[in-house]
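README, section 4: Worked example with a bound small molecule

Sections 1 through 3 covered apo chains. Here we extend the same pipeline to holo records, where the ligand is supplied as SMILES alongside the sequence. The molecule in this example is copper (II) ion. Nothing else about the input changes; the structure line simply encodes the ligand pose together with the chain.
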Amino acid sequence: MSLFHYFVLATLTGSAILVILNARKLRERLTNMHAMIIAMVMGMNIGLTAGVLFGSLYQGDLYSSTLISIAVGAIGGIACGISFGTLSSIEGFMSGLMGGMMGAMLGEMISHEQSTVMLNILLTLTTSSLLLFYILPNSKGCENKVSKKSWFLKPLLTFVLLLSFLLFGNQLDNNLALSDSSISDKHNHGNQNDSKLEEAQNVILNVHPSDFSYSPSEIIVEKNQATSITLNNHDQIDHDIEIKNISFQESSNSQHTEHTTGGADFHLHASANSSADITFTPTKTGIYEFYCTIPGHKESGMTGKLIVK
Ligand SMILES: [Cu+2]
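The generated complex, written as structure tokens:
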């Protein structure tokens, strides 16, 4: 459901409420036939519009869209007829039922873009049909003459109001398209981040057999740039890297902490004869000491320096 769809449903509900209000006010001026025509037109319009809406929303599931649409159409039709009496209610009910069924089939068959156009047409029909209240009583004959000079302004005003209202609804659809494109922009932005990851500064640290040292033992990286550290352990025993109190954002870690000693901020563990890597972004400059946490290794010289510029 997009904003435009909510707009359509709100307009349908508003139209039905306007019919109820107008019916109460103008009931005396309308004949039974007038009332039945209004109930039928409104019920049919509401059913058709709701049908196209749900038909296009639930494309591929005509059963559900038909059920929902005939329910909406029938309720709308009854609502439009109930203030006039039983006959009009029945008329509205059947028209809504039929409109909902036909609308759902139409919505099922047409594309999304076509359904937007169709919804606009049907919405125009529905809202314009409200004018029946003002056209029908006059056709009785008694009030048919032009009494005020401003009479021609009314249809014009109505037209302008209706047009701006519907344009507003369409704007919702455009906004949706805009937000869709901004989502894809964000997506592209995400891709840019991905390519930044690919451009990450790569640091490879080797640990040679029985050497108890890192090669190289000093690494320089740049602040706020994605950095990947690969620890290639060629030794027969496990080694790792630990850096305390370093500010960084971790992006990925192939092998997570296996034997952290308390308070460690950064940890990368490589099992015997294997390698491990971590991608992170250092967020503070400084010189950090790194070392191996396996007992005795640090003391044997497994230390190094990470300089964040
Ligand atoms: Cu070690």
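What to look for in the output: The chain has a mean pLDDT of 81. Residues 239, 292, 294, 297, 302 surround copper (II) ion (CB under 6 Å).

Section 5 describes how to batch many such records.
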